[in-house]
């Protein structure tokens, strides 16, 4: 992780933790617990400065803590939940922090991730099926993503970025990649850096929008 990203993540986590403490009396218990869990995993991620795999895994858990909700007794972290979360974030992002993050601060890694076929789900579907019909969809998705980036279509762009990160999550967390493998270093490093840059922005927005309904916790504190 570059020193600037590490410093940004560390400062963000420290500042956000102090904000959470200061605002705790104003937050309902569910929202306070959600953000406390997310910050704990964000801090775990930034502590792994020399291990991109563990940074990515901890960063993903921090993201999941922000958006995972209860759905009839079962944890929900599917496309519908993520889209709802993304739309809420953008609606309450009054200062366009997400767009600034994706375009100004991190456009290079965002573009690299979007142009990487190994984090594009249809690529792997084609590999398993033994055919090569993923390229058209990949090209269309890449063009659509770059159009979203240039035209400031933040919900669509953020959803595409998270889709790519979800494929990477499946590779790393579900045993589809070797620990510290040289094969996937670039996407794991960029994915970890992106998460450690985006998650503090998400938490910041959620602290500002403390009165909004961010969903029930799948695993609330008991007792």
UniProtKB/TrEMBL annotation:
Highest taxon, organism lineage: Bacteria
Name under which the protein is recorded: Apea-like HEPN domain-containing protein
Organism: Thalassolituus pacificus
